[in-house]
Amino acid sequence: MHFLKRLFDEELDADGDVIVAGTPFQRSRILAGLEPNDYEDAFSDWWEQRQDRLLQRADELLALFDNRERFDRLKAAFRTGSVIPLVGAGLSMPSGYPGWTPFLRKLCNESSILKADFETLLAQGEYEEAAQRLFDDSRKLFNEGLVNHFAGNRNIWGPVQYLPFVFDGTVFTTNFDNVLKRLFDREGKSFDMEMFGDDSEEFVELLGRGKRVLVRLHGHCDLVKHRVITRAEYDAAYDFERLEHLIRDVVFRKSLLFMGCSLVHDRLQKAMAAFVASGTIKDLVSHFAIAELKDSDDRVARRKVLAEANIFPIWYPQDQHDEAMEALLLKLAEGVVEL
């Protein structure tokens, strides 16, 4: 996991460069260049200490609420290869890609839409409608804005970098960026193919054949055809008859682990809840989420809403996303996957 050495080097270099005859040199490069064995020993010690600290943090998080029992069920499914990660925007944000709210606000600032009306939509959780207003204001500028903000190959940072080492199969994402594809390519674990939400009829066969697929449920920023972001696009993509195959034969085939997803005003979650309520299948698999619990949240109420979609949350406190995600991914892999 080469990205860990980048973190290690950052900590070594935090005290500033070493100046030799007026020339600055990074501490990490001095140690790695002059004493490579000592560098590797220091890195091994650092990684061991980091794991211990993060696993301890994971235990602290699992002691909250009913997190421990849920996590034990998640890990049991993970041991049998029955978990598919579903990655949301929160795992791309450390790499510099925007979350939905700041992205929509930035486009609004360059539009003719009244900002007060737009802020009302956001406050009410009407993100699809907000995107629709921007699209209707200027589809050319809206499409360009998506490309400008999500198409660039920015440096990859944050806990998303653990995913190729923890999960070796199919990955679902609602993101428009290329972080996951580039990340798995970088680690020599490229997906066999990429597919989109409207390709769902072919998913089951491919998964049954052991294909490793990156499933872009909401498309890609460069491809308007498969994209799901405006209200009209959501209405088309989440038509229940069209979606039932995806929900029945893909989403409820294995346990999903939602990561970096707000799960608030979420259309996929609502579609899953509708499927559960339909009673089409009695013995449904459980899904899990590593989810932020904001200080203002009614935890019991959120828990009930998620349970309607058979999603069960493992909570972490507000503004602790990166550390909590890294800690819980390490805890999930502990004793199962060699990192």
List the helices and strands and how they pair.
Blueprint: H1 2-12, E1 18-20, E2 23-25, H2 27-34, H3 36-62, H4 67-79, E3 83-87, H5 100-109, H6 115-123, H7 127-137, H8 139-150, H9 163-166, E4 171-173, H10 179-186, E5 193-196, H11 203-208, E6 213-216, H12 231-237, H13 240-251, E7 255-259, H14 267-278, E8 287-293, H15 299-307, E9 311-317, H16 321-333
Parallel strand pairs: 3-4, 3-7, 4-6, 5-6, 7-8, 8-9
Antiparallel strand pairs: 1-2
Helix pairs in contact: 2-3, 3-16, 5-6, 5-7, 7-8
Nearest-angstrom radius of gyration?
A: 22 Å
Major sheet summary line: 7 strands, parallel
The protein's oligomeric status is single chain
SSE topology string: HEEHHHEHHHHHEHEHEHHEHEHEH
Order of strands in the sheet with most strands: 5-6-4-3-7-8-9
CATH topology (fold) name of the largest domain = Rossmann fold
Distance linking N and C termini: 8 Å
Mean pLDDT: 92
Silhouette: globular
Total of helices? 16
Helix content: 40-55%
Task: Name the beta content range.
Answer: 5-15%
Question: How many strands appear in the DSSP assignment?
Answer: 9
Poorly predicted tracts of residues: none
Q: Keyphrases for this structure?
A:
single chain, 339 residues, alpha/beta, Rossmann fold, 3 domains, seven-stranded parallel sheet, 9 strands, 51% helix, 12% strand, globular
How would you briefly describe this protein structure?
With 339 residues, this protein is an alpha/beta fold. 51% of the residues lie in helices and 12% in strands.
